[in-house]
Write a structure and sequence with these properties.
Helices cover 23% and strands 32% of the residues. It is built from four helices and 16 strands. A four-stranded mixed beta sheet has the order 7-11-8-9, covered by helices on one side. The protein starts with 16 loop residues before the first helix and ends in a 13-residue tail after the last strand.
Length: 271
């Protein structure tokens, strides 16, 4: 058989300091080549480093549309949350993370927040006797909408007196769908609402008092005077019910009342 001698084997010479330095440089260079090749060639190739996909804007899309769009660019998705927003299409994408325009790796999962199909129920907050602006803010804070303001004659100007939904009166504490619209029924301080001045003369004072209250008016000064009329009878009023004369709701009517026989005094408390 043929014999192989060591003349064919690679042999590193270490006869001098220069040889040792050369050998050391070769070892270091080899290590650096392996290091850079691993981190800048093999690892980027293995992990697709530097190759990113831009996240599209999925807001407003249906789940099916979003899924098809993500599949086309090799991205996955997961529904992470549901919310209800009035006026938005049910089962559509409300928001997502990462946001549109961000660069992500292929295969990355996009987390979707979906508009729920059914509105949750919320309780109507107690906004009665609040100002209209305060009531609007409180309604919005629980997810209800201000559907409008309805003014009615009342002394409590700009004060919420009633609540309505779809034309029907509702009460604080009642459960209704989130996003529903509430109409505020607000007092106008009687505004310019006027009525004909009622005729009170000749009526018993207690009946006149009831009529005044029923018309949305107030009893002003009551003055007792001697008269040939039965005691407790209205003998005079101010303003007088002249033809075509009117009075604003909430205003007062001064009344003169016949004294009861034997009282012997008059009560003149009008200025």
């Amino acid at each position: 058989m043929p014999r192989f001698t060591n003349q064919f084997m690679f042999k590193l010479s270490t006869n001098s300091k220069t040889d040792i330095l050369i050998h050391l440089g070769i070892i270091i260079s080899t290590f650096l080549i392996i290091f850079f090749a691993f981190f800048f060639v093999f690892l980027p190739w293995k992990t697709n480093h530097g190759e990113s996909v831009k996240v599209p804007d999925l807001r407003g899309l249906s789940i099916t549309e979003a899924e098809n769009l993500l599949d086309d660019i090799d991205l996955d998705y997961e529904i992470s949350d549901c919310t209800f927003v009035s006026g938005h299409k049910p089962l559509s994408v409300f928001s997502h993370y990462p946001k549109a325009g961000n660069g992500v790796k292929s295969g990355r999962k996009i987390y979707l927040t979906i508009i729920s199909e059914k509105a949750p129920m919320v309780k109507i907050p107690d906004v009665l006797q609040r100002s209209s602006s305060s009531a609007k803010n409180l309604l919005l804070s629980v997810g209800l909408l201000h559907a409008g303001t309805e003014f009615i004659p009342a002394l409590e100007e700009n004060t919420v007196l009633k609540l309505k939904m779809d034309g029907k009166e509702v009460e604080p504490g009642q459960s209704i769908p989130k996003g529903a619209g509430i109409t505020l029924v607000v007092g106008d301080g009687y505004g310019n609402t006027k009525i004909d001045i009622p005729l009170l003369v000749g009526m018993p004072f207690d009946e006149a008092d009831i009529m005044i209250a029923g018309l949305g008016l107030n009893v002003g000064n009551v003055i007792y005077e001697s008269s040939d009329k039965p005691g407790g009878t209205v003998i005079k009023q101010r303003p007088a019910p002249e033809a075509g004369s009117t009075i604003k709701l909430g205003q007062s009517i001064d009344i003169w009342v016949s004294e009861y026989q034997g009282l012997g005094e008059s009560n003149s408390n009008i200025e």
